[in-house]
Design goal:
CATH architecture of the largest domain: 2-Layer Sandwich
Distance between the termini: 71 Å
Strand content: 15-25%
Number of domains: 2
CATH topology of the largest domain: Nucleotidyltransferase, domain 5
Shape: elongated
Strand order of the largest sheet: 5-4-3-6-7
Order of helices and strands: EEHEEEHEHE
Radius of gyration: 33 Å
Largest sheet: 5 strands, mixed
Length: 141
């Protein structure tokens, strides 16, 4: 029932919002959040760091993805342009000539290349059975 105020000649109703229930609800929510906040632990993510590899590779094959999304395979001083299907066969052939696990594959991609292209190359290498695949990055100064 609304409050009634006596002013002058007659009685009028007071048209104000009762804030007490609102304050009660807010205090209850505050207490709930204060009790549950210490119980929530943030997730811990173990990020990779540079230089954490067991041992550096003896030799590496470098797959370079250019701005035009063309692939170039560098094996030491030799370089050859390849298509994605031929890339897997060329890497398997180059790794077969070396001891097992001694040759790592490093993917170097231009900054403007779509991520999808890099993933496609990685998927092709994985399906070909390449064990050690890494990404080449430029360390910011």
């Amino acid at each position: 029932m609304p409050g009634v105020a006596a002013r002058g000649r007659g009685r009028r109703t007071i048209n104000e919002i009762n804030m007490v229930p609102f304050i009660d609800v807010m205090l209850v929510l505050l207490i709930i959040f204060m009790v549950t906040a210490p119980l929530i632990t943030p997730s811990i993510i173990d990020l990779p760091s540079v230089g954490k590899a067991n041992r550096p590779p003896d030799q590496k094959l470098e797959v370079v993805i250019g701005k035009d999304e063309g692939l170039t395979l560098r094996n030491g001083e030799q370089s050859s342009k390849l298509a994605v299907p031929a890339l897997a066969q060329a890497i398997v052939t180059a790794q077969a000539a070396k001891p097992a696990g001694a040759v790592a594959v490093v993917i170097s991609a231009d900054r403007s290349v779509k991520y999808e292209t890099v993933v496609r190359v990685m998927d092709t290498l994985q399906r070909a059975g390449v064990q050690r695949v890494g990404l080449s990055v430029q360390v910011a100064p």
